[in-house]
User: What shape does this take?
Amino acid sequence: MRLSARALYRLGAVAAILAAAWVFVPRFGTESNLINLLRQAFLLALVATGVSLSMLVAGLDLSIGAVAALSSCLAATVIVQGQVVLGILVGLAVGALGGLFNGLMIAKLRLPFFIMTFSMMFIVRGLALTYTQGTSIHGFPARFTWLGKSFVGPIPMPVVLGAIVLALLYLVLTKTTFGRITYAVGANAEAARFSGLSADRNIIQVYALSGLLASLSGLIYIARLNAADADLGMMWPLEGIAVAVIGGIAFSGGEGNILGLVLGGIVMAVVGNCVNLLGLPARFQDFFIGFVIIVAVLIDHLTQKRGTVAK
Amino acid sequence: MPRLLGILASLVSGPIVICLGMIAVFSLLSENFFSLSNAVNVVRQASVLALVAFGQTFVILLAGIDLSVGAVMGLTSCVTAALMLQAHLAPVLAAAVGIGVATVCGLANGLVHSFLGLNPFVPTFGMWGMALGAALIITEERVLTGFRSTLRVLHDGEFLGLPAPLLLVAGIFLILHTFLKATPHGIATYAIGGNEGAARLSGVRVRLHKTLIYAFSGFMAGAAGVLFLARSNAAQAIDTIGYEFDSIAAVVVGGTSLMGGKGGVAQTLVGVILIATLRNGLNMVGVNLYLQLVFIGVVLILAYVTENQGLFHALRELKRRLAGVPASVEEA
Assistant: This one.
């Protein structure tokens, strides 16, 4: 894998942020804090995978949080009865179906992605709340909470799972026809169509995959929390966009490396973590995260401009 | 006369048909729905959304988007309330400062977007976080209440038997509609949204214009925040979160294109009424809050489809596409 100049910039910036936090924030460098940070970063990166895929095809999936809530609540009902594998399959199937529906409406009915996934956010959230009636489902068997709570050596399981998912996605996006078409459709859907690529089919696949990944993230979250409720993932679309944008996935589509999500996840996790460690109330988080998003993207944007001029 | 007919024909758009259909259904299902007092209720409920959606309309006409408005509304109402409570400022003055803060937020969005060239999603979403954070910091996550309620007249007052928020929204609507349709600046807004490069070459100062429109969206969010405060008589940072999406939904459901250059505040007014009627009707009929979300999502999609493609055309087209027949030429 060759690293572009911009990827190096981004790596350098994240290293600088980590170094600054290490030096200036007390207890940042302790082992338990770093493990927490890593777990949070990879969970955020997982949440951002669906948003990133849809951004790669110049779209956006705002329904990921709602889809995660509905699929994990349905899965939870099965899992509390001891049927762990069946429950997971139910959850993933519901997520993929929700995403498939988004994709069909966007590609076949030509609904703008914003209208479709935004409406879907309401519809699916409403269904999830109707299903649970606002209660939470808890008491999962240890065979399931293992997904969110256990460790491989010192590494938390969500980190391992997140790394596997990101690595698979990276391979799929760079080494398969599906991946190549995804980037082509995102860069210029019309050109892709005229080149004989099936843009519609690709868009449907991408949104279905986004739904699937949303439900997977949801399952790992409820395994970690040992409880599922219909409020899960309210902020995921926005958090996911932030992680993706900081990670270098372009809004305009067709550009970005999925592995960048790890960096985006780390930046967002560090901000939250430092606010905690500095003893600031949690309310400062939103402010700093908003600020970091603008600054991070701005730096990226300005370095990009310079790069283009140099060519 | 042909002009009048044209106006009448343009009135029969998808959202209006859906709106009339909903009114008919709700009137059948609930005897209290079709009444003057409930209509006044709907107007009061819709007024806050109308103000913020008007600002959003201008931004979307530029093919932009303003995600910060919900948080900026909250910041405005919290700043206004805090100034009245802690600095004992006169309500009007406090509201003016609150709206000023909102305008500065919008101006910052506009500057970062227009002059640094960032996709508007990024600065306005970043501003969303910063405004929400600032409001939480100011209020220390509490509900601010117990100030003099002079502002309430904006929401509860009546003039000549008409509710004050109706007059406020109607007045602002007329000004904005005239501005968009009959002044060079309004027409420049459409020109930029339609084709930014062409607008620049025709002598429109695109970056300045865009910046001012984002500032205006902030200003309108501020006004909506004050009206929200007047309604609830209490300020909390997170109360207005969600208005960013509601306002975008109202604009788009009304028929303004997210691609820019097409639509206007008249369309937005229809979108606002549609959403407010739907929420009110579902409440009256006794649909629980959870299921209401499902209905809202479905109506959003329906409104968009009927407005932009015609429902039956869309269904035919879908059938054709699913059968593997290539799309018609204009959509290819």
